Amino acid sequence: MNINLTLFAQMITFAVFVGFCMKYVWPPIVNALAERKAKIAEGLAAAERGHQEQALGEQRALELMKEAKVSAAEIVGQAQKRATDIVEEAKSDARTEGDRLLAAARAEIDQETNRAREELRERVSTLAVAAAEKILQKEINVDAHKSIVDSFAKQL
Amino acid sequence: MAATETLTAEQYIQHHLTNLTFGLHPEHGLGLAHNSAEAAEMGFWAINLDTMFFSILLGGLFLWFFKGVAERVSAGVPGAAQNFVEWIVDFVEDNVRGSFSGKNPMVAPLALTIFAWVFLMNLMDLLPVDLVPYLFGQFMALFGADPHHVYLKIVPTTDPNATFGMALMVFIMVLYYSVKMKGVGGFLGELTLQPFGKWGMPANLVLEGISLISKPISLALRLFGNMYAGEMIFILIALLYGGSFVLNATGGVLQFVWAVFHILIITLQAFIFMVLTIVYLDMAHQEHH
After folding, report:
1. How many CB pairs (< 8 A) connect A and B?
2. B75–A32 CB contact, under 8 Å
3. Does residue A40 fall inside a structural domain?
4. pLDDT computed for residue B110 by the predictor
5. Dist. CA A72–CA A66, nearest whole Å
6. In which domain, by residue range, is A25 found?
7. Domain annotation covers residue A65
8. Is position A1 within any domain?
9. For the residues B165-184, what does the mean pLDDT come to?
10. C-alpha span between A22 and B105 (Å, rounded)
11. pLDDT tops 90 at residue A135
């Protein structure tokens, strides 16, 4: 319990400890704390910004949806109109085609009729000749009387 | 192992209150003091090896631990050690910010060093009062020393040299910053021109002088007195040991109760020393107080 040289030794020790602490211990820790504080503040600000951006984005999305609805309705209208047009076109096409087919069929029928008529005419003339042969009981020279038969056949 | 047959209670207490003093004795020459009288006869040019060893050990421990954390410190998610260190640093920084209005990058590290160092030195008080001195005595006995004359005080703050050492350094800083901030004239004016104006100069000087001198003395004596008294109570309780079973049990319970209470005291004293240092330095930095 005597005051002795320990006093000065302790003073020096204390000064050295304080100096060491001030140079190597305190600054890095306090800097890290300040840095973390800044980071947290930054994070909070970013979160706030994020919130705002989200609100903006939602608004924008709503606007886009509204726009999309309008344009979709427009497109549907156009499509319906186009569909009607197409149907009308198809109808008229079909009508034309039908007419054409009808005309063709009619022409064919006419042709068939004519051909049938020709054939019939020929057969009837043959039959007539055959019948005349039988009636006359005598052979008529077909070649000699061909002009007569033909004129007959034409009258049918 | 406390009050053995060979030691009276008085000797036991005396033994615990004597430092391991190394110095030049006028008769026995250079060496360790064999009793408190010899330590006193060595006069000023002696050194308390135990105080020096434990204070440097504990201060080194503190700086080693904090430096280790400071090297790996990250602003990201802190680990357990960093969390602990940050908790203390934050606590000290809060106190400095609350009490110290000036700008001085030295005050906060100074406060941290004081708080941690004083706390650790006080903490040695919680080790069983006989444990380390007994082990050290047995250890020295291996080298032929008489264990009853091997002294060891493991609580540096019960040595006034340690507390006055710190308080004087604080006092030197108070004087240095007083002069640096206010100039020699300002500082002298503060000492002599208030509270009674320039016609009451002698009275002012006495009042302000006492208030100035009382700062380091109260700082040192408060810490020393608290720790010395706490240590003394541990020693007195330890005197109960070695008797009947009832006395031993009572001593054990009392040691525990006092140790629990002492946790409060050691923390409080470290805190008070730190806060007063901050306040004194703040006063040194201010123009008027």
Report:
1. 138
2. yes
3. yes
4. 94
5. 10
6. 21-110
7. yes
8. no
9. 92
10. 8
11. no
In the three-class reduction of DSSP (H, G, I as helix; E, B as strand; rest coil), residue B67 is classed as helix
Q: Say which of A13, A33, A39 has its CB closest to residue B86.
A: A33
Residues B82-129: pLDDT tens digits? 999 999 999 999 999 999 988 888 999 999 999 999 999 999 988 888
DSSP, collapsed to helix, strand or coil, labels residue B29 as strand
A contact residues 17-76, partner B, Cβ 8 Å cutoff: 17-18, 20-22, 24-26, 28-33, 35-36, 39
User: Is the CB of A15 inside 8 Å of chain B's CB atoms?
Assistant: yes
To the nearest whole Å, the CA of A48 is away from the closest chain B CA by 21
Which amino acid is residue B255, in one-letter code? Q
Task: Give tens-digit pLDDT for B216-251.
Answer: 999 999 999 999 999 999 988 888 887 788 888 988
CA closest to A4 among chain B residues: B44
Cα–Cα distance measured from residue A121 to residue A150, given in angstroms and rounded to the nearest whole number: 10
Residues of A in contact with B36 (CB under 8 A): 1
From A40's Cα to the closest Cα of chain B, the distance in A is 10
Task: Report the domain count for chain A.
Answer: 1
The domains found in chain B, sorted by start residue, are 20-63 (no CATH), 102-178+214-288 (1.20.120)
CB-CB contact of B281 with B174 (8 Å): yes
pTM over 0.80: no
Write the residue in A2, A6, A32 that is nearest to B73 by C-beta: A32
Write the Ramachandran bin of B241: left for phi over 0, alpha for psi from -120 to 50, otherwise beta: beta
- Closest CB to A29 among B39, B47, B69: B69
* Residues of B annotated catalytic, as ranges: 218, 222, 226
* pLDDT tens-digit series, residues A7-34: 999 999 999 999 999 999 999 999 999 9
Q: What is the DSSP annotation of B121-143?
A: HHHGGGS-TTHHHHHHHHHHHTT
A156 pLDDT above the threshold of 80: no
Q: Tokens 């020699």 — which residue?
A: B184
